[in-house]
Design brief:
Elements lengths: L11 E5 L7 E3 L4 E2 L6 H5 L10 E5 L17 E6 L4 H4 L15 E6 L1 E6 L3 E6 L5 H15 L16 E2 L3 E2 L3 H16 L5 E13 L2 H12 L3 E6 L5 E6 L2 E6 L2 E5 L1 E6 L4 H6 L1 H19 L8 E11 L2 E11 L6 H8 L7 E2 L1 H11 L10 E6 L3 E6 L3 E5 L2 E10 L5 H18 L6 H8 L11 E8 L2 E2 L2 H16 L5 H13 L4 E9 L4 E9 L8 E7 L26 E4 L5 E4 L3 E6 L2 E4 L10 H12 L4 E3 L4 H5 L3 E6 L3 E8 L3 E2 L4 H11 L1
Parallel strand pairs: 28-29, 28-35, 32-33
Antiparallel strand pairs: 1-2, 1-12, 2-7, 3-6, 4-8, 5-6, 5-20, 7-8, 9-11, 10-11, 11-19, 11-23, 12-13, 13-22, 14-15, 14-21, 15-18, 16-18, 17-18, 20-21, 22-23, 24-25, 24-26, 26-27, 29-30, 31-32, 31-34, 34-35, 35-36
Helix pairs in contact: 4-10, 5-10
């Protein structure tokens, strides 16, 4: 439908969870708000939903007449509220430069929409009191665009080619890390608890932005996708997973996202991350405060807190906060009380916005504002304009950032911006330029994905221990690396059958890509008997680490260049502790169990996830985040976790120190083996 109507003025497409799950398309608005007008005042205009709306007009031609459907949207205001509107709500310092300025808002009013009904297909709906002649005109435009085939959607034209240049950033990774350090100084000084810091990625663009939007939507299927055609050739293509506001009647819901991990990591570990949960909880409190300004006292409540979900190529923590609006509160009042979205500012909100203008190199446009609709029939729904491409003057750009809290790692935050941007660029056929590509490669391992990925598990009593977690991690790696799903037969047949036939064994499942399919191999190896040797580690620098996937060409200790090291301890170029060669690393420092965070540089070990859950269950303090060699030297005990050997105390790290087995490792070993 969007391709057929691509040349219509004011084209809008909302795809996903906008209103009862139906996609919405609109074109030829009957009014466009002037750039100098107040968008909030326009959204306060009362809509007449009491009169009957125009009956939906079915546009498809199925074998049987479509069932009767009621109009759900009809029309209303569609568009975006750009981030810089915050300056009209609060007194803020001047914004940084705007390389390609877009209007601070774009809102267009439509008296008709096309809605894809799950029962009746595409229907044309109108607002109450619309002119029947206009309905007939718009219907004629749609039918002519689609052609005379039955159903007419089959006659839509193919996509058109477009080209993105190589993406560059307004600040390199080191510069972004330096900005994060400045933000951390404000946090340590008590000036702010959290502040969202972003960088801008930009490239040349040639073609129709609509085709880029549809390509990205086809690959990522975001929950709140939106396309807006703006006057003068500009456009917005939002592939957002995040709900800013949904008002249905007097009930209002916000679902802030905060906390991110790469797709190949364990979402359970993200949910257990103290740093990521802190990010999320702070913003939940901020959104509760914002909603309380316009909701009935006592009605604002957190329905779900920091649950892990997968969106647009990464894992996120998502929460739900709901309230009931006071009588007389308009949509304008609601937006003025909550805009811009708290998940993209920080807390305290006003101070965080002041710092954003001071810290960032270029001003935000639509990014971190909101895109959506206000309808007298459907209510209000706006996304948070993240994962959003913006177009103007032959350029395309997007923002990428994250919430900075006291435990944030500056280099890790720079990595996170690329972790968020990379799936978007992959989805639309774009790529990092030389500088960003070098930065990306500097933060990840350099395996040969064609050789496959694998997982190794313990077989005990004919059963694979923690099988679901192993296959979930392997499946995530297969999806991330090859875009394919792990075959169901791996779980039902090959793995269980191999485990049932052996005693205590190490089981390995290897998946290799072939031409459009996956080759799966399952092997078992008997475990050696006898006493367990103590673990001794030798520090080895591996810039960027080995990454979040267990690559088949990951060399074994004692092979190739690692022959001198029994058990390497991997360190990043800055001395940050990553992981042991075959295990995740933990240290007890000043009574706190410390372990490196899952930031894309290390393997999300299944035993690591079980260990974190067990430690939390015992009430032991745990911190996921940066861990240096110097902190290891002062540790009370050091231990590693591995799916096959379980928990093992480390007795020596060459050049760092010797350690005695401690009570935490012993207690954890009993918990995991029980």
């Amino acid at each position: 439908m969007l391709r057929a109507l691509r040349d219509e003025p004011g084209l809008v497409g909302l795809l996903g969870d906008w209103h009862e799950g139906g996609d919405i398309v609109a074109f030829r608005p009957d009014r466009v708000l002037a750039e100098g007008d107040d968008p909030f005042a326009a959204l306060a205009e009362p809509g007449d939903a009491a009169r009957p709306a125009a009956a939906p007009d079915g546009l498809t031609t199925p074998d049987e007449p479509p069932p009767a459907v009621r109009p759900l949207v009809g029309g209303g205001w569609f568009g975006y509220l750009g981030y810089q509107l915050a300056g009209t709500l609060e007194r803020l310092p001047p914004a940084p430069p705007r390389p390609v300025p877009l209007p601070h808002h774009h809102l267009a009013h439509y008296d008709h929409v096309l809605r894809r009904d799950p029962r009746a297909g595409w229907v044309l709906e109108g607002l109450p009191g619309v002119d029947p002649a206009r309905t007939a005109l718009l219907r004629g435009v749609v039918v002519a665009a689609l052609g005379a085939a039955a159903p007419p959607v089959a006659a839509t034209p193919p996509p058109r080619p477009y080209r993105c240049g190589a993406f560059a950033s307004d600040v390199d990774g080191a510069g972004h890390a330096a900005t994060v350090r400045r933000a951390l100084a404000h946090i340590r000084a008590g000036d702010v608890y959290q502040v969202n810091v972003c960088r801008r990625l930009e490239a040349a663009f040639d073609g129709d932005p609509l085709d880029l939007f549809l390509a990205g939507h086809g690959r990522l299927r975001p929950r709140f996708a939106a396309f807006l055609r703006l006057p003068g050739g500009a456009a917005v293509a939002s592939l957002s997973p995040e709900l800013f506001l949904r008002r249905t009647g007097r009930s209002v819901l916000t679902s802030p996202i905060k906390g991110t991990a790469p797709l190949g990591t364990d979402p359970a570990a993200l949910a257990a991350s103290a740093k990521d949960r802190a990010e999320n909880v702070m913003i939940v409190d901020l959104m509760r405060n914002d909603l309380s300004r316009v909701c009935e006292p006592g009605s604002v409540a957190v329905e779900q807190l920091a649950r892990a979900q997968t969106h647009t190529g990464v894992h996120h923590l998502v929460s739900d906060v709901r309230g009931r609006l006071r009588d007389g509160v308009t949509d304008a009042d609601l937006l003025r009380a909550t805009f811009p979205p708290g998940s993209c500012t920080g807390t305290p909100k006003v101070r965080a916005m002041e710092l954003i203008h001071d810290l960032e190199r270029t001003a935000r446009e639509v990014y971190t504002g909101a895109v959506g609709l206000v309808s007298p029939l459907a209510g209000l729904t706006f996304n948070v304009a993240i994962r959003t491409f913006e177009f103007g003057d032959g350029r395309v750009w997007l923002g990428a950032g994250g919430g900075i809290v006291a435990e944030s790692d500056p280099d890790g935050e720079a990595r996170e911006t690329l972790v968020k941007a990379r799936p978007l660029l992959d989805a639309v056929g774009a790529a990092f330029g030389p500088a960003l590509a070098a930065e990306w490669e500097g933060h990840r391992a350099r395996p040969d994905p064609a050789l496959g990925v694998f997982t190794t598990a313990l077989v005990r009593g004919g059963v694979v221990v923690d099988l679901d977690a192993h296959l979930a991690r392997l499946g995530a790696s297969v999806r991330a690396c090859y875009g394919l799903a792990l075959p169901d037969r791996v779980r039902a047949d090959a793995v269980r059958a191999a485990a049932a036939a052996v005693g205590p064994h190490r089981l390995r499942v290897t998946v290799r890509p072939r031409a459009g399919w996956l080759e799966v191999a399952v092997t078992t190896t008997a475990l050696a008997g006898g006493p367990v040797e103590p673990w001794r580690l030798v520090p080895v620098e591996v810039p960027g680490g080995l990454g979040a996937h267990k690559w088949a060409d990951r060399p074994e200790p004692g092979a190739g260049p690692w022959s001198a090291f029994r058990d390497p301890l991997l360190l990043d170029a800055d001395g940050a502790v990553l992981e042991a060669w075959r295990a995740n690393v933990f240290a007890v420092v000043a009574g706190v169990v410390r372990t490196p965070a899952l930031d894309g540089r290390i393997l999300p070990g299944t035993a690591r996830a079980r260990a974190l859950a067990a430690l939390a269950g015992e009430g032991l303090p745990v911190r996921e985040g940066p861990l240096s060699v110097g902190e290891l030297a002062s540790a009370d005990e050091v231990f590693v976790t591995n799916a096959v050997v379980g928990v093992r105390a480390v007795v020596e790290i060459e050049g760092v120190g010797r350690f005695r087995p401690g009570p935490v490792a012993a207690q954890l070993g009993r918990l995991l083996s029980g």
